[in-house]
């Protein structure tokens, strides 16, 4: 099963942008993340829409952080990325009229919903400057 590592990768980029004294190009970010510049532009574009970064074209252009790290939470970034699914566990629906399957699905869904609420709440408490101080 494939992991969605966009959140951790974007957090990495944002902290590097905060530490940089000049803009970083999509190519530089792509090299740092071992990905394609098109993927970087698409992802960073989501952050630009939310007002966290900006970009400039040209010789001295690139991506810059426009909001301080202490004003951006993990939840902000998670939401800017479209609020990707946190858990890859899935419920089965092959036997939807089976009372055992319904009971299992209800228990799993309740537990996963509770865990997601707690995790997202914690994400809202952690600002990026806290992460930057740990690095």
Automatic annotation (TrEMBL):
GO cellular component labels: cytosol
GO molecular function, one term: DNA-binding transcription factor activity
Signal peptide: none
Family matches, as SUPFAM superfamilies: Winged helix' DNA-binding domain
Domain of life: Bacteria
Record-given protein name: Predicted transcriptional regulator
